[in-house]
Write a structure and sequence with these properties.
The protein is α+β, with helices and mostly antiparallel strands. Helix content is 22%, strand content 29%. It is built from 15 helices and 52 strands. An eight-stranded antiparallel beta sheet has the order 9-10-11-12-19-16-15-14. The chain has a seven-stranded antiparallel beta sheet with strand order 3-4-5-8-13-18-17, with no helix packed on it. Strands 40, 41, 42, 44, 48, 51 and 52 form a seven-stranded antiparallel beta sheet that branches. Strand 3 (97-98) and strand 4 (103-107) form a beta hairpin. Helix 5 (376-395) runs antiparallel to helix 6 (399-416), helix 6 packs across helix 7 (450-467) and helix 9 runs antiparallel to helix 10. 57% of the residues are buried.
Length: 923
């Protein structure tokens, strides 16, 4: 969400001009009914003089859906929302929609389909895009529909509908789908190509064509025939109503894709779970067989997905704005990740109580703690700023200050949670949404940013609930909080009042900000960190109120979007941004690509900081890729011509997630003369930087058995932190074997008890082998820590091919393969100060010890950072390739190879410890 110091004058002038012309926001009815919700209420009618969703010229609009979809909650803020939200009066079809690998645009004659594979860098090098460009249009002969409407949708698929009275067409499209599935009546199937196609295969009802260098397969019912005439390709449907089109990775894939051409996708569903520090999600497509009995399918996984699945993938890949997509031959796949950490606040390690008290008083005793905020966004930021300080005051025994802050928060929340005043929430029956008035940044007319705005309210309410459970009861104010949650992150698919997960795109792995998606570049999201602020708020609210469903939803959203942010906003592995895009971070992600920009400024500080704020105990996931944090800060300072000035507090806090000492030193040198960012305070910034300087940076390689837990590492010392919202004490266990006793309604901090080998080197389904210098894998423990040298790649690229590898083996191994098990490893590696190194691992299984390896698994390499210190390389990097099949071990051999895939320098591999282990899936 843009956070300028004031609304741009140009916007104000434009609004005034439109109003003067009589096309400004439409006034709502004057009378309104109040809907009681617990102790609060909302209105069922907008306040007089305000507007709901409109076209870009201010004309009110209602959802553009078929009769079959009338009355159902429309998922605005999605990758395809322009089908249902007509933002432009002269376009009743859609703007470009980016499903990946395919792109689409609805037009009168059907569905344009493209597969952009070459990025363009535009805007003076500030944006890369794989823009939609039509390769072909899928339609029916003679189809000329006056509009396109949304007919049905599921978690990541949608069915557009065309009708001109004589002909009807439905297509099903979605993220990750290489196929477009079509059902039509009243005309022959017609494919119109952008240029004369080259036919590479003609099998009657199956035709392979190449258009603009992209290979497509066309599938008509058995017994029919495709006919090519110039750029028109047609087929009679032989009394049937179905046909499909697929984009092929190469012409040789035709037979593999033909197998699934008549297994039509009818829906998509994600199911998630949280258990003992691990988030698992299963993504499933439902299908129906149009011919034969085949019900399987092919789907392409994004990078953030295939990095975290052990399900087998085919060799087929696609190009996308999110990097390489990999194809799975199945209707489902499962991802598994360590849960992202969330805390109500950092512990006050190293903090000077007197100094913190002074900073707290500056905020609590200010003349206007809300800084004049009146709309939903700026009120939210003020609520978030105050909520951050409540646990800090509590930590140093400042009960009066804590309670004063809580009183301010409650008063403002209750004001908004009561209809009829200067501010209120109003429900729109047509759009099934709750909008706060006064609105801002298109949250009313465009349905933008609800997750950004309301996340602050839920976060503030969660902090109140931590200290005053009675206030959060459903009979009090909790039901209004839950109503905001239903608007922004509804976990129910059957709720008739709000859509399922309005803003969060479960397959893309992140949220979208625009309600209408009405841009040539697709939908967009700027402030990804304000999206994860809502997710963290759900964790805290669910924990504080005993709602484990919302707690676990928040954990899934935070963990999933955290990885998407790392890959697609920060290019953490440097495998997503095109080489021609000379930036290390993006301020905005679009359906077509990403941009080094914001909506309101070109200031580098804000381009980099907008995906950091607000900094809370839910921001720790940003420290999972420390090399990316360092690159990010370095680029900001290059582009800025020096260190941060305007948003120095936000960027100090961000830097502290990788280099706490450096960030704290910047605070020490510059804290006297700066103005805090609008959602920040000197109290919070001082506390945050001091705590991390004392504890060390967050350690994402270890997770706790409670979502509200985290681990920090400084040197060789790990500190474990957990908050227990419950009414009884509990023990939190961590994935490295440590545990922490946490009293009721308290935060505990310590170095942990117990230990030993990691009980959860994910997945924890087998025997654990330590590495020994000399080339041995052993289940023995108690050795002396050491290291082996990983020889340099000498500037060559050995990605996927061992080159002078370190080799470790265990022989005469017996074991029964565990059902569903897979290889896991944690390897401690260190490149010292060398830049651009990457280590790679291969695990091989000789099942009978006969000298032939029956199963070989090569993993994606790990890019080490140029900072001395151990980093953890694990199987979560994802499989690069695999051959053969696992089976039972009978006197078998297990081999681990580690080598330098890239770079021009040696690295080290830790041996003799329980932190460098290989876990095989055998019992």
């Amino acid at each position: 969400m843009p956070t300028p110091r004031s609304r741009p004058a140009a916007v104000l002038v434009l609004v005034s001009a439109l109003t003067a012309l009589g096309v400004g926001p439409a006034a709502g009815p004057a009378a309104a009914a109040t809907v009681p919700v617990g102790a609060g209420s909302y209105s069922d009618t907008r306040p007089a003089g305000t507007s709901g969703p409109t076209t870009n010229t201010g004309t009110p609009v209602t959802p553009k859906v078929t009769p079959a979809a009338q009355g159902k909650p429309v998922p605005t803020n999605d990758w395809w929302s322009s089908l249902a939200f007509q933002r432009y009066g002269d376009n009743p079809y859609s703007t470009p929609m980016y499903g990946h690998p395919l792109t689409y645009q609805a037009v009168a004659g059907g569905l344009e389909i493209g597969y952009p594979t070459s990025p363009a860098v535009v805007g003076d090098g500030r944006q890369y895009e794989f823009a939609h460009k039509r390769d072909l249009t899928l339609g029916l002969t003679g189809l000329n529909s006056p509009d396109t409407r949304a007919d049905a949708w599921s978690d990541w698929t949608v069915t557009p509908y065309w009708s001109d009275g004589a002909r009807t067409l439905r297509t099903t499209i979605g993220h990750g789908l290489p196929f477009v599935y079509a059902k039509g009546t009243g005309g022959d199937a017609r494919i119109t190509t952008a240029e004369t196609p080259t036919v590479f295969a003609d099998q009657g009802n199956v035709l392979g064509i190449t258009v603009a260098g992209h290979h497509y397969a066309l599938f008509a019912p058995t017994g029919t025939d495709w006919n090519v005439s110039g750029s028109a390709v047609t087929a009679g449907l032989g009394g049937k109503d179905y046909f499909s089109v697929a984009v092929l990775p190469d012409t040789g894939a035709l037979a593999a894709y033909r197998k699934y051409a008549y297994s039509f996708v009818t829906g998509s569903t994600v199911n998630w779970s949280y258990d003992a520090g691990t988030v698992r999600a299963t993504y499933t497509l439902t299908t129906e067989a149009k011919e034969g009995t085949e019900r399987g399918t092919l789907q392409a996984l994004y990078r953030h997905q295939w990095l975290h699945t052990t399900d087998p993938l085919t060799p087929y890949t696609y190009v996308s704005p999110r990097g390489t997509m990999k194809v799975r031959e199945s209707a489902s796949f499962t991802t598994s990740q360590r849960a992202a950490a969330t805390l109500p606040a950092l512990p006050g390690a190293g903090v000077d109580p007197a100094r913190l008290r002074g900073y707290l008083n500056e905020v609590a005793n200010s003349a206007d703690p809300f800084s004049g905020a009146v709309d939903t966004y700026w009120t939210g930021k003020a609520l978030g700023k105050l909520a951050q300080l409540v646990p800090l005051a509590d930590q140093i025994g400042e009960g009066a200050t804590r309670d004063k802050l809580l009183g301010l928060i409650k008063g403002r929340l209750q004001d908004w949670f009561t209809a009829g005043g200067a501010n209120e929430f109003s429900y729109d029956q047509a759009w099934k949404t709750l909008t706060g008035y006064p609105a801002s940044y298109g949250s009313d007319t465009e349905l933008n940013d609800h997750h950004f705005h309301y996340g602050y309210y839920v976060y503030a309410a969660a902090i109140v609930a931590q200290y005053d459970p009675a206030w959060a009861a459903d009979s009090a104010w909790g039901s209004m909080v839950k109503t905001l949650v239903r608007d922004t992150a509804n976990p129910s698919r059957t709720d008739g009042a709000f859509p399922f997960l309005r803003g969060f795109d479960v397959y893309a792995g992140h949220s979208w900000a625009s309600g209408h998606q009405g841009f040539a570049a697709g939908n967009n999201q700027e402030s990804s960190s304000e999206s994860t602020n809502l997710s963290a708020a759900l964790v805290l609210w669910g924990s504080a109120t005993g709602d484990t469903q919302l707690r676990d939803l928040g954990t899934y959203l935070l963990t999933t979007e955290g990885e998407a942010i790392a890959q697609y906003w920060f290019d953490a592995d440097q495998q997503v941004f095109p080489a021609s895009f000379q930036h290390d971070t993006a301020g905005m992600v679009w359906g077509s690509g990403a941009a080094y920009s914001t909506w309101w400024t070109a200031n580098p500080e804000e381009i980099h900081g907008i995906n950091v704020l607000p900094v809370t105990g839910g921001s720790l996931q940003l420290g999972g890729h420390k090399d990316a944090v360092r690159r990010n800060i370095a680029e900001m300072e290059r582009e800025n011509g020096g260190p941060a000035v305007e948003w120095r507090d936000i960027l100090w806090e961000f830097q502290s997630l990788a280099d706490p000492g450096t960030a704290k030193a910047k605070w020490d040198a510059g804290n006297a003369g700066y103005t805090p960012e609008a959602g920040e305070s000197k109290a919070h910034t001082y506390h945050w930087l001091t705590a991390l300087d004392t504890l060390g940076a967050p350690d994402a390689t270890v997770s706790g058995s409670l979502p509200t837990s985290a681990v920090f590492t400084k040197g060789t010392t790990r500190t474990y932190v957990a908050h227990n919202h419950g009414a009884t004490a509990r023990t939190v266990t961590f994935s490295d074997g440590k545990s922490l006793s946490v009293p009721a309604r308290s935060t505990a901090t310590g170095t942990g008890t117990g230990g030993g080998t990691d009980p959860d080197p994910e997945p924890s389904t087998g025997d654990t082998f330590q590495l020994r210098t000399g080339g041995t894998l052993t289940t023995a423990t108690g050795a002396t820590a050491g290291s082996d040298t990983v020889a340099s790649a000498q500037g060559a690229n050995h990605d996927g091919t061992p080159n002078r590898p370190l080799v470790y083996e265990a022989r005469n191994v017996n074991g029964t393969l565990r059902s569903g098990g897979s290889t896991a490893f944690r390897l401690q590696v260190d490149a010292g100060t060398a830049v651009g190194l990457g280590q790679q691992a291969r695990v091989s299984y000789d099942l009978t010890g006969d000298g032939t390896f029956d199963r070989t698994e090569t993993y994606q390499y790990f890019a080490t950072d140029p900072v001395t210190g151990w980093e953890e390389y694990g199987q979560a990097r994802g499989l690069k390739s695999a051959t053969g099949t696992l089976g039972d071990l009978r006197g078998g051999t297990v081999r681990l190879e580690v080598w330098s895939a890239i770079g021009n320098g040696d690295a080290r591999l830790q041996t003799g410890t329980d932190r460098s282990v290989l876990v095989i899936p055998y019992g």
